[in-house]
Amino acid sequence: MENTLFPIFLKTESARFLIVGGGKVGLEKTETLLRQNPLVAIKIIAKEICGDLRQLLHKSPHVEWEERSYRHNDLDAIDFIIIATENALLNREIKEKANLEGILVNAADQPDLCDFYLGSIVNKGHLKIAISTNGKSPVLARRLREHFEEAIPDTINQSIENLNTFREQHKGDIQTKVSSLNEATALLLQRNNPKKEAKKYKRLAFEIAAVFLAVFFGYGLSSIVSVQDLAGYAREIPPAFYGMVLVGFFAQLVDGAVGLGYGVTCATSMMLFGIKLPAISGSIHTAEMFSSGISGFSHYKFGNVNKKLLLWLAIPGVIGAVLGALLLIYLGNKYETITYAVLATYTMIIGIRLVSIAFRKKIEKKKIKNTGILGFSGGLLDAFGGGGWGPIVTSTLLAKGRKSSYVIGTVSLAEFFVTLAASITFFASLGVSNWYIVLGLIAGGSLAAPLAAKLAGKLPHKTAVLLVAFLVIVFSIRMLFKVF
């Protein structure tokens, strides 16, 4: 057996430590002990105390210290000794004398003189994890500590407190405790093998979207191109298709890395390309329907959907989306210049809204009023402007202090029905003459998805949202100048 160490957690309230050595190693060992218990009893003996250690001692007046040579009577009334000198002979002498007195020894960088090791320690409230490599690689132990400190959330302490409260409330016989535990963990059994269940619902959403896609392009090809002309037409793909690939790529890159902004990024970019207004919103919603469907059903399976809130958002949102789509079709055909100005102003407002989201501070939970109006307004403006459901609805609910997982999950599933309603309205009114726009957005988004996934979380969320807001505002202002 290569590692025979037995890890224990020592109560330091009554333990007494002696540190011999006042250099950088002595400083490190002192800091390690004080991090675990700021009032731990420490005595330091050293010929010379370094400046950093001296500053630490001024902040911890309870720590005893003397600037002199070590004497054997320093071991009196000591439980543990830490040797931090560069004198190998002295270190061995202290080790032998301490063991005769029944005192355990730790010697820095000398495993053969150690009775115990000071491992790397992860502190997260009540949670404490000690890491040891059996004295072989302190650097690896430190790197593991840094990894766990970053990976384990600070909220783990709240979970420990909740479990302790649950434990204290169940002091009955073993049968009572088992029954309570079974009830508390029933939800875990319902979520068994979450990856498999998530894959199942992603496949279902994909199949629904594939059927719609087949009808969409099947009808479009049959009404626009005959079978005889299909091969020739394929060689004459409209140049705008490649522009839409770039727009889809950029928008998906932004949305995947930041978590919002797909619709409004597409809308502002496509306006600059001169795409007809109804085609902008119709294409965006058709392309976005696939991702929102997969995301929404996945959230539903993982229990992140509030069904009551979903109804209050989805039903008015669908009505608003249909009206918004019809309004855009009418205004876009009759008052194109004015509508461009209205949409550019709207997207600029959304950009300003994103800035407020970036600087939003944590607020207390408040009662949500007029949820139906919020869903209707979000659907109407989203269909009319080609985007904005997330910045409008999600940000409003989060501003009321609602839990982010339920807000994002519920809004994502509601968005699927809103985008579906808008897509069907545009499809029924305009046909599929703009099929190349939809296909370009889907192709570009598919290419960007893997890269966007890698970028997710790399850029600070506040910085990322501000960048999106900046681009949206700049594009909108440029469009206003172009109109006027």
**CA-based gyration radius:** 32 Å
Instruction: Classify the oligomer.
Output: single chain
Percent in strands: 5-15%
pLDDT averaged residue by residue: 75
The SSE string, one letter per element, is EHEHEEHEEEHHHHHHHHHHHHHHHH
Per the principal axes of the C-alpha atoms, what is the gross shape? Answer: elongated
Our count of domains comes out at 2
The major beta sheet can be summarized as: 5 strands, parallel
Estimated helix fraction: 55-70%
Number of helices: 19
- What is the strand arrangement across the widest sheet? 3-2-1-4-5
What are the segments in which pLDDT stays under 50 over at least 5 consecutive residues? Answer: none
Structural class by secondary-structure content: alpha/beta
Report the end-to-end length measured between terminal Cα atoms. Answer: 81 Å
Number of strands: 7
Tell me what the structure shows.
It is a single chain. With 484 residues, this protein is of the alpha/beta class. The chain folds into 2 domains: 16-118, Rossmann fold, CATH 3.40.50.720; 205-483, no CATH class. It has 19 helices and 7 strands. The chain has helices at residues 24-36, 51-59, 88-100, 138-151, 156-168, 174-184, 186-190, 194-224, 230-234, 240-258, 262-272, 277-301, 307-334, 336-358, 371-385, 389-399, 404-430, 435-455, 461-483; strands spanning 16-20, 41-46, 64-67, 80-83, 104-107, 120-124, 127-131.
From the structure above, extract its key features.
five-stranded parallel β-sheet, 19 helices, alpha/beta, two-stranded antiparallel sheet, 2 domains, single chain, 65% helix, 484 residues, Rossmann fold, elongated
